[in-house]
């Protein structure tokens, strides 16, 4: 369990990092928090020739609010998100979600940029980006690129980033005033990747959803912003409506089978999450009775 | 993890003033370990030391057609690349059988595979280099050509005529079979009002020690002496086996075992790669280090518990259990492990089923088959979790059938506390157990009736909680009956030497070993108590075949009961010797003197007479002042092994309280209780920690841990992300209570406590899950109880 030999440079600026990436192409790998990359290297699943450590690029670390936009630098660590007052005030969903990412030791090093670039379909933060309508900002040889979150994730560990690009930040619209959220995931042990999870954001008016965004994760090869959410907006929710939305959700899912769950189990749990989310957000425990469907 | 503790009773015979027996004194080695001054094998660096990495088979069963090593040999830092055939000139193969397990057979196993690999992970070549990284780099350049063979993976078809035989010379894939028939089983079932049958399925899992297996072997050609630094539970056993297969005398082999990062039975065996490391050192005439990494730990550390056991119980409507019957099948991998063999677990299952109960009607069959998976062998609580889950599962299901409370059916059938000595239906002899006292204490600790009321109230609100009870017996303090009688050179006796040094402190050498359970502490507590010396003046030396008495080590819950008694007896002799000289010096008689607080005192009034340091000064430096003919012996050695009973059985009962979410299949453990009886308690904190740690490993088996193999014999979750060990977040509070029935085999009266927790935890959880599932009309007799398994049973997916 020792990584294959590699060369190492510590990037001195974003420009320097981009230069190294363009010179070395696919032979180089960015090192951010190292919590996904280093285990993979030690298992010799990947063997980059050059490691470009961006850890010292402090300009990429931090959370800022400007007007209606919340900007999170790529190097912002999971632990920073958990502690940030801006996040708690303007994107509380993210705070709830980060508490489910791994364990304190890993949250102290892992970064949001690394998590999004790594694009594990069972990861919490990518799904949150969909739910919150984030824009991902990347810089490459040709300058800056702004990518909508729902176009960023394209497969297991796959994004639209090119090997020459650096994810520098994400931008989120600050939470609308009367919005509310729900985050829950099913994992065998606290801190494990989810079997199925849901990051939801809603605004509610007169007991109905005026808006509802459902970001599911671990239900396919990438996070999913469920279109079936629309079936629940601007209608009086009855068990029948909910069950119709659940079967529409079922059509959208393409879950994988792994050690923890079959595809059928993931479908089932996604529907349980949907029901629990709706009944909790609307404070309607009557809807939960049908959850065992 | 601690909630309120039921106070352990202590034993008065050893409860001298200032006695440490029965006190929760801190372990003397804690500061050293906490300050990073432990010495684990991984820490050991010797001059000219090289690092071995094993290239391991990617196939479960294959012929080795050729091994090409020339490219690897050119790689930087490489010292040697060694195949199985080359190594076989240095080390001979072995066969893991014992003569008292009649009919047990196995094939010769080599340190590194020769011609054929029999499981995914078996070593095919060793690469030795100046660093581990260089050895791993070079290993990527060894190319092995394999011809894949049919992999026998499913134990259920291993004996079918159509299934290929793994070792042709053995004739079939049956390693061992045992049949037992006691009482009148058929008649008992015929007379039962209800008969219940089920198949119990147990996931293959492993011990996952924090520190992986590790060894440094140092062959000194000049002295013709091999020093082995290894994290092992049984140094003298390692010495014997290494000498035997390397063609050496035992006197040429020294085994040193410093700190060990967890063992749980994983490190009580002789592994092929360890044997290869000893041989590589001899071959290359230099120190060689091997430290298993996590992936190879999963692929090569022994697995355990892969059993499918059909069980049957007959009951009368009044709750009387009429008979038990089992048919157990287990797959142990391609070889029986050396030297303890892989038949012991199945043998234990036969021994232990029905053990807590009165009925004498018991029929059992156990079959042990070969398969192309990693080897299986003894892991903490060998066979107990299987036997306990089957027995207690059957008892609960029978109670359900006749609508009797699970506590009540146990009250009616557990062997009475005044019925001892007696024997189990499998012929095990019990000296003194306390099932009823333990159950009564458990019921009171958990407030059983209140819990039942709470459960009923919550059920109405669609909250599904379950209560599970599991009584158990545990084999501890084994005599030669375990291994010695079968021809294995595994000592069942242990020895302790104690000596008073020149400043009145005590050095104590013991043959038991320390892997974190507190052997060092309990030895110091006993010696300090008996001698009247404070514990900070007692230094304990363990784990060195050159520097301790000969003995078995620490396994099978034997350290305290056997090694502790040897310490007690040795300290008594030393105490007498000290008082003899003191009497001479003080012109008194030994009977008028005692030792308290590091000083010789008067028995009558406790007045101090002479400090031990002063006495030692006289003995060692001014013997000329002693009367002629007086030769003090301030060192004493004693050995001990139980002789009347082959094993000191202990007993206990566990309970689990949990909540099951029928929508998700998730189980949340809310609370766990254990009442156990390990006889004299030397250190209540250490006993409780043993129980809790053992329970956690049992809970791992119940809910999380499983080595998942595919049909081609590939282990698919050999890493810490996919193989789920229990973590603190999911663990409930574990309350521990005690009943104390000392064994009369020893003055100390201590029995073992190391495996009790593991023995019954999974059974309690499974029973609780089935209790929670009652309204749904389904039962589950398979562990681990994953959400997938539970949702499937509920028909939700
Ligand atoms: C035991 C354990 C449990 C975990 N559990 C969870 C969990 O439950 N949920 C979860 O979401 N995660 C989990 N993780 C992963 C953790 O959150 C990682 O921190 C995260 O996935 C990657 O972030 P990082 O900063 O460590 O990235 P790194 O490991 O440094 O990099 C990951 C990948 O992203 C690339 N990369 C990094 N930064 C950039 C950038 N700015 N631009 C472009 N590419 C970049 C790297 O080249 C690499 O390919 C777990 C990790 C461990 C070790």
Largest interface: A-B, 27 and 32 residues
Low-confidence stretches of chain A: none
Report the count of strand segments of chain A: 14
Structural class of chain B: alpha+beta
Oligomer: heterodimer
Helical content of chain A stands at: 25-40%
Question: Main sheet of chain B: which strands, in order across?
Answer: 3-5-1-13-10-11-12
Helix count, DSSP H or I runs of 4 or more residues of chain A: 11
How many strands, what sense, and barrel or not for the largest sheet of chain A? 5 strands, antiparallel
Mean pLDDT across residues of chain A: 96
Radius of gyration of chain A: 20 Å
Number of helices of chain B: 19
Helix and strand pattern of chain A: EHEHEEEHHHHHHEEHEEEEEEEHH
In terms of DSSP E residues, the strand content of chain A is 25-35%
The overall strand count of chain B is 31
Low-confidence stretches of chain B: 1-13
What class do helices, strands and sheet pairing of chain A give? alpha+beta
Which term fits the overall shape of chain B?
globular
β-sheet strand percentage of chain B: 15-25%
Per the principal axes of the C-alpha atoms, what is the gross shape of chain A? globular
Largest sheet of chain B: 7 strands, mixed
Provide a compact summary of the structure.
The complex is a heterodimer of chains A (293) and B (797). Chain A has 293 residues and is an alpha+beta fold.
Q: Could you characterize the architecture of this molecule?
A:
- The complex is a heterodimer of chains A (293) and B (797).
- By secondary structure, chain A is an alpha+beta fold.
- Chain A contains eleven helices and 14 strands.
- Chain A has helices at 14-24, 37-42, 78-83, 85-90, 92-98, 104-107, 112-118, 124-132, 149-152, 239-252, 263-281; strands at residues 7-10, 28-31, 50-53, 63-66, 69-73, 135-140, 143-148, 153-155, 158-159, 166-173, 179-186, 196-205, 208-217, 224-225.
- In chain A, β8 (153-155) and β9 (158-159) form a beta hairpin.
- In chain B, the strands form eight sheets. In chain B, strands 3-5-1-13-10-11-12 form a seven-stranded mixed β-sheet, sandwiched between helices. Chain B has a six-stranded mixed β-sheet with strand order 7-17-16-15-8-31.
- The interface between A and B is medium-sized, with 27 and 32 residues.
- Bound molecules: flavin-adenine dinucleotide.
- Flavin-adenine dinucleotide binds at residues 29-37, 39, 74, 101-102, 106, 110-111, 113-115, 117-118, 123-125, 161, 166-167, 191-193 of chain A.
């Amino acid at each position: 369990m020792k990584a294959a030999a590699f060369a190492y440079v510590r990037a001195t600026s974003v420009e320097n990092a981009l230069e190294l990436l363009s010179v070395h192409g696919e032979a180089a790998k960015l090192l951010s928090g190292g919590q996904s990359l280093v285990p993979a290297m030690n298992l010799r699943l990947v063997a980059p020739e050059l490691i470009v450590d961006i850890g010292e690029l402090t300009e990429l670390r931090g959370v800022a609010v400007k007007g209606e936009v919340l900007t999170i630098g790529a190097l912002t660590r999971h632990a920073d998100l958990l502690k940030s007052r801006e996040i708690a005030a303007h994107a509380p969903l993210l705070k709830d979600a980060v508490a489910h990412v791994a364990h304190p030791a890993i949250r102290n090093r892992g970064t949001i940029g690394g998590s999004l670039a790594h694009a594990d379909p069972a990861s919490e933060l990518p799904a949150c980006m969909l739910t919150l309508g984030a824009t991902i900002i990347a810089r490459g040889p040709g300058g800056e690129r702004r990518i909508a979150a729902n176009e960023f994730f394209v497969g297991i560990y796959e994004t639209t980033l090119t090997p020459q690009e650096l994810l520098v930040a994400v931008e989120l619209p600050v939470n609308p005033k009367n919005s509310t959220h729900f985050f829950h995931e099913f994992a065998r042990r606290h801190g494990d990747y989810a079997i199925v999870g849901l990051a939801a954001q809603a605004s509610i008016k007169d007991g109905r959803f005026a808006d509802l965004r459902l970001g599911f994760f671990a239900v396919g090869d990438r996070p999913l912003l469920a279109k079936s959410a629309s079936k629940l907006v601007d209608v009086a929710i009855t068990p029948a409506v909910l069950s119709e939305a659940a079967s529409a959700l079922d059509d959208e899912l393409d879950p994988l089978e792994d050690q923890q769950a079959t595809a059928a189990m993931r479908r089932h749990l996604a529907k349980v999450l949907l029901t629990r989310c709706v009944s909790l957000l609307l404070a309607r425990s009557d809807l939960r009775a049908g959850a065992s469907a | 993890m601690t909630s309120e503790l039921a106070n352990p009773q202590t034993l008065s015979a050893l409860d001298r003033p200032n006695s440490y027996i029965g006190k929760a004194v801190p372990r003397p080695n804690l500061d050293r370990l906490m300050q990073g001054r432990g010495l684990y094998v991984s820490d050991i660096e010797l001059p000219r030391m090289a690092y071995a990495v094993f290239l391991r088979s990617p196939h479960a069963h294959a012929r080795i057609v050729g091994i090409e090593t020339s490219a690897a040999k050119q790689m930087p830092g490489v010292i040697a690349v060694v195949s199985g055939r080359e190594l076989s000139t240095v080390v001979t193969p072995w066969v893991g059988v014992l003569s008292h397990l009649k009919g047990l057979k196995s094939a010769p196993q080599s340190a590194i595979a020769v011609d054929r690999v029999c499981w995914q992970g078996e070593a095919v070549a060793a690469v030795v280099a100046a660093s581990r990284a260089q050895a791993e780099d070079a290993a990527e350049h060894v190319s092995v050509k394999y011809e894949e063979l049919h992999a026998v993976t499913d134990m259920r078809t291993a004996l079918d005529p159509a299934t290929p035989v793994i070792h042709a010379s053995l004739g079939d894939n049956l390693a061992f079979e045992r049949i037992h028939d006691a009482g009148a089983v058929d008649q008992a079932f015929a007379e039962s009002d209800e008969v219940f049958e089920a198949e119990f399925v147990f996931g293959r899992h492993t011990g996952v020690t924090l520190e992986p297996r590790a060894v440094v072997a140092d062959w000194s050609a000049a002295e013709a002496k091999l020093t082995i630094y290894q994290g092992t539970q049984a140094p003298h056993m390692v010495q014997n086996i290494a000498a035997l297969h390397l063609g050496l005398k035992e006197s040429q082999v020294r085994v040193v075992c410093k700190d060990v990062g967890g063992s749980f039975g994983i490190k009580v065996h002789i592994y092929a790669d360890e044997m290869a490391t000893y041989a590589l050192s001899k071959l290359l005439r230099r120190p060689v280090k091997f430290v298993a990494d996590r992936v190879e730990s999963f692929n090569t550390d022994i697995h355990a518990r892969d059993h499918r056991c059909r069980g049957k119980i007959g009951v009368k409507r009044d709750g009387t259990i009429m008979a038990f019957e089992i048919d157990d099948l287990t797959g142990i991998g391609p070889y029986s492990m050396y030297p303890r063999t892989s038949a012991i677990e199945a043998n234990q299952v036969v021994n232990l089923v029905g053990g807590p109960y009165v009925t004498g009607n018991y029929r059992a069959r156990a079959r042990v088959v070969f398969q192309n998976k990693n080897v299986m062998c003894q892991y903490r609580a060998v066979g107990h979790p299987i036997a306990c889950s089957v027995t207690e599962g059957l008892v609960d299901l029978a109670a359900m059938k006749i609508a009797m409370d699970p506590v009540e059916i146990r009250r009616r059938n557990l062997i009475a506390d005044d019925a001892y000595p007696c024997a189990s239906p499998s012929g095990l002899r019990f000296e003194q157990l306390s099932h009823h006292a333990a159950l009564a204490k458990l019921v009171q600790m958990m407030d059983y009736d209140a819990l039942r009321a709470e459960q009923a109230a919550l059920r109405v609100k669609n909250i599904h909680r379950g209560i599970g009870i599991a009584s158990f017996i545990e084999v501890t303090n084994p005599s030669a009956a375990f291994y010695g009688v079968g021809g294995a050179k595994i000592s069942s006796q242990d020895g302790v030497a104690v000596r008073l040094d020149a400043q009145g402190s005590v050095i104590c050498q013991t043959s038991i070993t320390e892997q974190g359970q507190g052997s060092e502490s309990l030895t110091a507590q006993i010696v300090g108590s008996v001698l009247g010396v404070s514990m900070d003046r007692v230094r304990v030396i363990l784990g060195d075949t050159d520097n301790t008495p000969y003995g078995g080590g620490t396994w099978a819950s034997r350290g305290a009961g056997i090694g502790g008694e040897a310490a007690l007896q040795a300290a008594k002799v030393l105490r007498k010797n000290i008082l003899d000289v003191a009497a001479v010096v003080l012109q008194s008689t030994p009977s008028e003197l005692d030792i308290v607080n590091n000083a010789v005192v008067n028995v009558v009034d406790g007045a101090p007479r002479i400090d031990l340091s002063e006495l030692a000064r006289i003995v060692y430096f001014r013997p000329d002042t002693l009367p002629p003919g007086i030769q003090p012996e301030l060192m004493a050695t004693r050995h001990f092994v139980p002789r009347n009973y082959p094993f000191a059985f202990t007993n206990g009962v566990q309970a689990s309280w949990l909540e099951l979410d029928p929508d998700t299949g998730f189980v949340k453990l809310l609370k766990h209780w254990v009442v156990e009886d390990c006889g004299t308690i030397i250190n209540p904190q250490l006993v409780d920690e043993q129980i809790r740690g053992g329970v956690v490993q049992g809970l791992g088996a119940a809910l999380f841990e499983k080595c998942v193999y595919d049909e081609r014999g590939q282990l698919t979750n050999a890493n810490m992300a996919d193989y789920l060990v229990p973590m603190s977040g999911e663990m409930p509070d574990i309350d521990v209570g005690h009943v104390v029935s000392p064994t009369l085999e020893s003055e100390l009266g201590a029995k073992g406590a190391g495996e009790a927790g593991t023995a019954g935890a999974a059974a309690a959880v499974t029973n609780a899950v089935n209790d929670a599932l009652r309204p749904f009309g389904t039962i589950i007799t398979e562990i681990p109880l994953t959400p997938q398994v539970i949702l499937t049973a509920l028909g939700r997916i």
